[in-house]
Specification:
Length: 89
C-alpha cells in the first residue's frame, strides 16, 4: 500500500481522548517507515499524533516524522507561540 499513499499516520496514544502520554515504543514504527521510504524510494509523509509535546516532538522528528500533531500541548499552553517554537526546536 505504501506506494499508493500520500501520508501515513502513526498514532502514539490509544485513540479516544486528548491529554494522554505518548507511547514512545511506537517510535520504532516511524523508524521502520523511514527506512522503507528510503529503501523503496517512496514519497509519502509520516505523521505522528498523540502525546506530542516539547519533549516527544524532537524524538518523533529524530525517528523520521515529517508532520507532528500536537493537541493538548498546544491548547493548554499559556503562550501558544512559544509552544510552537519549542515544538519546532
Amino acid at each position: 500500500m505504501l506506494p499508493l499513499v500520500d501520508i501515513v499516520l502513526i498514532m502514539t496514544v490509544n485513540p479516544g481522548y486528548g491529554g494522554q502520554n505518548c507511547i514512545t515504543g511506537c517510535f520504532t514504527k516511524i523508524t521502520d517507515l523511514t527506512r522503507l521510504r528510503i529503501e523503496r524510494q517512496l514519497d509519502f509523509l509520516i505523521s505522528v499524533d498523540g502525546g506530542i509535546n516539547e519533549e516527544t516532538a524532537g524524538q518523533a522528528a529524530a525517528a523520521g516524522a515529517d508532520v507532528l500533531v500536537a493537541g493538548s500541548a498546544f491548547f493548554n499552553a499559556p503562550d501558544k507561540a512559544a509552544m510552537i517554537r519549542k515544538l519546532r526546536g
